[in-house]
Amino acid sequence: MLKLLQVKLLVAILAVLAVIASTEIYRAREAHRAAEAAEKTAALMEQQQRERDEQKKQDDAFRQRVEQLKKHHNMSAGNEGETWQNYLP
Q: How far does CA 53 lie from the centroid of its chain?
């Protein structure tokens, strides 16, 4: 009878240890998944930041080019009167 109780107690202890081990494995797996998700999110955010920076550089270059074209166009219009005055047929 005592041996039967010892066996039942041993089985119960082993079952509890199995539950604890499976819970720990699950926790570790979830922590790993969360770390991977955070890493992917960080990489995505860095990529988006690089794209925003590149777009800003392109926009700035475009604005500068437009301003230069405006200045050049305005200079041509300002000099137009002088060119017709000096025109000799």
A: 12
Kindly report, residue by residue over 17-27, the tens digit of the pLDDT. 999 999 999 99
- Let me know the angle formed at the C-alpha of 50 by 45 and 52, rounded to the nearest 5 degrees: 90
CA-CA distance, 25 to 30, in Å (whole number)? 9
pLDDT digits (tens, 9 = 90+) for 40-88: 999 999 999 999 999 999 999 999 999 888 877 666 555 555 656 666 6
Q: Which two tokens stand for residue 63?
A: 């604005």
HEC string of 12-79?
HHHHHHHHHHHHHHHHHHHHHHHHHHHHHHHHHHHHHHHHHHHHHHHHHHHHHHHHHHHHHHHHHHHH
Give the predicted TM-score (pTM) of the model. 0.55
